[in-house]
């Protein structure tokens, strides 16, 4: 096992005080003969070459949901791409006390880094900060801690952006019509992520003169999706668009739609499951699009943990440090681009 590098300990403290956020996107390079070019850092193009061994502890909630199961699988697969990474995977759990114990075990084992998708970000903040104070690089995934001192970097999906993407799709498809009936099946309403998705959807629709006419909430499960959809369909005899926040609960939503023999509307999914993408590709159901919430977040966390421990940066940036936060995009998948996203999609 490698020992803690002095630079790692210093960067953990300095990095925690920074507030820069990077939204990943395309960029172009240009050359210049003026003096400013001397200040541009040289990209590290050898990031994937084998280096010092990195021991990473990984903990996430139980895989009781297709997306969550894909999170762990992707992290394990990513670690397997490197001969210098040893990934110690804790058993998935929805017991906060057990997850805290798992992180404490990683600290006692003196791992080099911890990639942590917390069941409860607030509850896991203290033990994550304990790991950082011990000189262990912590990468926070998906559900944020309460303190910036608890992680060196955070990898997030874009919940508000999901709503914006879904609403923008509706606006573009409606082509200026302002009399369309738009409905929404949300996830668990008490969660900030659900609130963010709904707010983004509402804001995007408002820009083209539409709003949400009927809205119900489910619980990210097949059973709750079917029940919520049945209630919605009964309350709304005519629908033009339906956005469902989650493709796992969407299995139940589709069951209710089929049971009600409804097919007059366009349905947009959420999260981007392979099942939904295949339905979009087949073109024989109400599903015409889904909005991706990447299940690669922990895999990205593993890659970033390795870079941080080995004192490397992102090779495509001039910046010589790994950014404090990475927010992944929420693209819309349709029949036009489904083949691009299907290979990395998760199974419901």
Walk me through the structure:
The longest helix is centred in the middle third of the chain and has 16 residues, at 159-174. The chain is 39% helix and 17% strand. The two termini are 37 Å apart. Helix 2 runs parallel beside helix 10 (297-309), helix 3 (96-108) runs parallel beside helix 4 (121-133) and helix 5 (159-174) runs parallel beside helix 6 (192-206). It folds into two domains: 6-25 and 36-157 and 295-317, Rossmann fold (3-Layer(aba) Sandwich); 159-293 and 333-344, Rossmann fold. With 348 residues, the protein is an alpha/beta fold. Strand 4 (113-116), helix 4 (121-133) and strand 5 form a beta-alpha-beta unit. The chain contains eleven helices and 13 strands. The radius of gyration is 22 Å and the shape is elongated. The chain has helices spanning 6-17, 66-79, 96-108, 121-133, 159-174, 192-206, 222-235, 247-259, 274-282, 297-309, 338-341, and strands at residues 22-23, 54-59, 85-89, 113-116, 137-141, 153-156, 182-186, 212-217, 241-244, 266-271, 287-292, 325-327, 332-333. The strands form two sheets. The chain has a seven-stranded parallel beta sheet with strand order 1-12-6-5-4-2-3, with helices on both faces.
């Amino acid at each position: 096992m490698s020992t803690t590098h002095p630079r790692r300990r210093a960067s953990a403290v300095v990095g925690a005080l920074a507030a820069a956020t990077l939204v990943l996107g395309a960029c172009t390079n240009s050359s210049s003969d003026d003096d400013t070019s001397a200040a541009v850092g040289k990209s590290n193009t050898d990031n994937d070459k084998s280096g010092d061994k990195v021991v990473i502890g990984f903990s996430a909630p139980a895989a009781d949901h297709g997306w969550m199961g894909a999170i762990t699988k992707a992290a394990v697969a990513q670690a397997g791409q490197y001969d210098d990474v040893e990934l110690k995977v804790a058993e998935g759990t929805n017991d906060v006390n057990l997850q805290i114990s798992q992180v404490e075990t990683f600290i006692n084992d003196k791992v080099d880094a911890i990639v942590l998708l917390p069941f409860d970000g607030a509850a896991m903040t203290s033990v994550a900060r304990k790991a950082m104070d011990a000189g262990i690089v912590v990468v926070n995934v998906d559900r944020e801690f309460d303190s910036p001192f608890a992680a060196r970097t955070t990898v997030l999906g874009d919940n508000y952006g999901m709503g914006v993407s879904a609403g923008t799709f509706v606006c573009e498809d409606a082509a200026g019509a302002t009399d369309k009936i738009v409905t929404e099946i949300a996830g668990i309403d008490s969660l900030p992520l659900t609130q963010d998705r709904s707010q983004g959807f509402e804001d995007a629709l408002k820009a083209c003169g539409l709003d949400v006419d009927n809205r119900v909430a489910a619980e990210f499960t097949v059973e709750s999706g079917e029940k919520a959809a049945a209630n919605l369909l009964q309350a709304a005899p005519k629908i033009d668009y339906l956005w469902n926040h989650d493709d796992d609960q969407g299995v139940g939503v589709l069951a209710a739609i089929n049971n009600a023999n409804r097919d007059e509307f366009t349905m947009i999914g959420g999260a981007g499951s392979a099942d939904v993408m295949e339905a979009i590709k087949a073109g024989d159901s109400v599903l015409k699009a889904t909005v991706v919430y990447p299940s690669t977040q922990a895999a990205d966390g593993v890659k970033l943990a390795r870079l941080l421990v080995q004192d490397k940066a992102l090779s495509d940036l001039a910046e010589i440090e790994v950014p404090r936060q990475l927010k992944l995009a929420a693209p819309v998948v349709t029949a036009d681009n489904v083949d691009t996203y299907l290979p990395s999609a998760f199974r419901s």
